[in-house]
Amino acid sequence: NVYASECENGVLPETLTLMNAYSVAGNYGAVPVFDAYPITGDAEGWLASIGIPAVTVELEGRTSIEWTRNLAGVN
């Protein structure tokens, strides 16, 4: 899945655009709000707090970087 970053002000519209484009290109699910477990902070949240769109891409396993899918996402 591709997760949108969020901060005190919520998810930036540009982040949703980035998340959707990456998820479609890489054939990942798009998740606008991460709520699987509590977190106390992350780099993506900090980027969002200063107005920079960012996403997290969670790989399906620990043995593959899913190169083709992720290359499609960044292209």
What does this 3D model show about the protein?
With 75 residues, the protein is an alpha+beta fold. The chain has one domain (2-74). The chain is built from 3 helices and 3 strands; from the N terminus they run E-H-E-H-E-H. The chain has helices at residues 13-26, 43-49, 67-74; strands spanning 2-4, 30-31, 55-57. Strand 1 (2-4), helix 1 and strand 2 form a beta-alpha-beta unit. Helix 1 (13-26) packs across helix 3 (67-74). The longest helix is centred in the N-terminal third of the chain and has 14 residues, at 13-26. The radius of gyration is 12 Å and the shape is globular. It starts with a strand and ends with a helix.
Strands, helices and their partners?
Elements: E1 2-4, H1 13-26, E2 30-31, H2 43-49, E3 55-57, H3 67-74
Parallel strand pairs: 1-2
Antiparallel strand pairs: 1-3
Helix pairs in contact: 1-3
